[in-house]
Design brief:
The chain has 2 domains: about 110 residues, Orthogonal Bundle (Arc Repressor Mutant, subunit A), CATH 1.10.10; about 210 residues, Vaccinia Virus protein VP39 (Rossmann fold, 3-Layer(aba) Sandwich). It contains 15 helices and 10 strands. Strands 6-5-4-7-8-10-9 form a 7-stranded mixed β-sheet, sandwiched between helices. Strand 7, helix 13 and strand 8 form a beta-alpha-beta unit. It is elongated, with a radius of gyration of 21 Å. About 40% of the residues are buried.
Length: about 350
């Protein structure tokens, strides 16, 4: 029944998962093609070229990332590979960039900015997650109904709302999702005198973290649909936003009763982050969230992820399960294609 609940949340989007995936794929694919057209890629690749030829011509230095980009285009039929040489499969012209359902203008701008950064990434210059980003626009992106459905699928699958205690939201961004989570628990009367419920948000970016703390009453008022004065009156129960990376969480062992993360693991060292989240989880505690495990993450989306410094890219469910079991998990479950997951840590003997 828990898996059915998770699926119901995703079905509320009202679109087929397959159809939405196709829209997302072409959005990222065409954005990247247009960026590399401006770079002169496809004119150069009108003749067969080796990866080294491409590096030498454009001044690229990251052969490993270049090979990944070439292989994604080859697997998609945009390029043809003959022995160690690549060439365009057809005359490549500017591609239409159609915004997928549930994506807003902010997501479009973030994606176009990411596409424009590929030449620098191929020259070994990484971006960071919030480079050039309008941090308030990121609220529009994380506030999309898509992200709400992802969150709720994870909560329904895990039954996290039946638990109380210290709760950590890893990779909370500018706090929009944390405010929504706070609202879920507030509706369950989790806050008040003697409450054991404490919510923390972990975020490495100072700009995003500052917005999370300062704008929480605004976000919560809008999401929970309570007057801001009511939200302010509950200030002692507001989330605490803390600086830190998923791979190095600044809390003691076994500090949290629940650890949650959504679509974060591919932005960092997946194994290190997973084991670190398990480290700060109490025995018997719940680790849950969502992640686009292989093969659910589109290869073009993964390329955009890898533009950012520290991103490890897509991970496999079997690797994730091995990591959490090595870190003390006794139960691991998955649901929905996104994928929602839940992990229970071994209780103290």
């Amino acid at each position: 029944m828990t898996k059915i609940g998770a699926w119901i949340e995703m079905l509320k989007l009202g679109a087929s998962v397959r159809g939405l995936k196709k829209e997302v794929r072409f959005f990222y694919r065409n954005s990247l093609i247009n960026s590399l057209l401006k770079e002169g890629w496809f004119d150069f690749l009108s003749q067969p070229r080796t990866a080294q030829d491409v590096c030498d011509h454009f001044g690229y230095t990251d052969m490993q990332f270049l090979t990944r980009v070439l292989d994604v285009f080859t697997n998609d039929g945009v390029l043809i590979r003959e022995d160690d040489r690549y060439r365009s499969a057809f005359p490549v012209e500017p591609q239409p960039v159609k915004l997928p359902r549930f994506f807003g203008a902010a997501m479009k701008q973030i994606t176009l900015d990411g596409a424009a950064s590929f030449p620098d990434r191929l020259k070994g210059r990484y971006g960071t997650f919030s480079d050039g980003m309008n941090l308030f626009n990121w609220d529009d992106t994380l506030g999309l109904e898509l992200y709400e459905r992802l969150r709720m699928s994870a909560f329904r699958f895990s039954h996290a709302l039946n638990r109380r205690g210290r709760f950590l939201d890893v990779g909370c961004g500018n706090g929009t999702g944390t405010a929504a989570i706070w609202g879920y628990y507030n509706r369950r009367k989790a806050f008040g005198p003697g409450s054991k419920m404490e919510i923390y948000g972990l975020e490495p970016d100072e700009g995003l973290r500052s917005i999370a703390a300062e704008e929480f009453p605004v976000y919560a008022s809008r999401l929970v649909k309570l007057d801001r004065s009511v939200i302010e009156g509950l200030k002692e129960y507001h989330p605490r936003f803390v600086a830190g990376y998923a791979e190095n969480i600044p809390f003691d062992d076994e500090y949290f009763d629940m650890v949650y993360t959504s679509q974060v693991l591919h932005w960092c060292n997946g194994e290190q982050a997973t084991k670190e989240m398990m480290r700060v989880l109490k025995p018997g505690g719940l680790f849950f969230g969502t992640e686009s495990f292989h093969p659910s993450m589109d290869p073009y989306v993964e390329l955009f992820t890898l533009v950012n410094e520290g991103a490890g890219g897509v991970i496999r469910k079997e690797d994730f399960e091995r990591w959490v079991r090595e870190a003390g998990a006794v139960s691991v479950g998955f649901a929905t294609p996104t994928v929602a997951f839940k992990v229970i840590k071994k209780s103290a003997s």
